[in-house]
Design brief:
Strand content: 25-35%
Radius of gyration: 18 Å
Largest sheet: 6 strands, mixed
Helix content: 25-40%
Number of helices: 7
CATH architecture: 3-Layer(aba) Sandwich
Strand order of the largest sheet: 6-9-10-3-11-12
Number of strands: 12
Distance between the termini: 23 Å
CATH topology: Rossmann fold
Structural class: alpha/beta
CATH superfamily: P-loop containing nucleotide triphosphate hydrolases
Shape: globular
């Protein structure tokens, strides 16, 4: 279980996250809505322990234990996996190289390869000259090579991804993440048509302003915009 308590974060003296409180239970699937620039990606990067962020107050806990002093690698060892909004291309490194590094046999992951449709990319440089959907599929597979990951942080998984790829990604997640916790950020909501989420939160200006049923919140956003969430019945007190 991942718990975030009263998390307030600054960069160069500017407050970018304020009093964030979240509790994602083991196996829970949560969606974090919000417009571009509201702090969703920042929250994920802070959870992963990336540099340049000053945590003014609050805590991040995994199964009740603080991870604030943990390195990125240590947080991964504790079960946190992260896919950024924009994939990084790695020249000279292939997926089959990673499989060899992690001593993973092709036959052991063939079902995942087939499900994601990435057979043709195994011997190509990682994320090189690929579409948004292809990149997301490869990164999901790469994340699956880390066997101990129990919580997926998936940033804008449906951004720049066509309907065919969203369908493929959603089916893959349904089959591979049944016991894993997921937090998916989105500002388009398209992933909700294919993948059932348990809970939803809305972030505006670095704050979580409301929470509730994912479909109900998304319908509210579509009808009145994100600002409507500030005054809705589900708003955070």
């Amino acid at each position: 279980m991942i718990t975030i308590k009263n998390l307030t974060v600054e960069v160069e003296g500017k407050k970018i996250l304020e009093d964030i409180n979240l509790k994602i239970k083991n196996g829970e699937k949560a969606v974090l809505f919000g417009p571009n620039g509201c702090g969703k990606s920042t929250l994920f990067r802070v959870i992963m322990g990336m540099n340049s962020y000053n945590i003014v107050k609050g805590d991040i806990l995994i199964d009740g234990k603080s991870i604030l002093k943990k390195t990125i690698n240590q947080r991964v060892d504790l079960g946190i996996g992260y896919i950024a909004q924009k994939g990084v291309s790695i020249k000279g490194v292939k997926l089959e190289d990673l499989m060899e590094q992690y001593e993973i046999e092709y036959d052991d992951v063939k079902k995942k390869i087939d499900s994601l449709g990435i057979e043709e990319f195994l011997d190509r440089d990682i994320n090189y000259n690929l579409s948004g959907g292809e990149t997301k599929r490869l990164e999901l597979f790469t994340l699956s090579l880390l066997k101990n990951i129990s919580t997926y942080l998936l940033d804008e998984l449906d951004s720049g991804v066509d309907l065919e790829n969203i369908d493929r990604i959603s089916k893959y997640l349904k089959n591979t993440s049944k016991k894993k916790s997921l937090i998916i950020t989105t500002h388009t909501g398209s992933i909700l048509k294919e993948f059932k989420m348990d809970s939803a939160y809305v972030m505006l200006n670095g704050k979580i302003v409301c929470e509730g049923n994912p479909i109900e919140i998304w319908e509210c956003i579509k009808s009145g915009g994100y600002e409507k969430c500030v005054n809705c019945d589900r708003r955070k007190k």
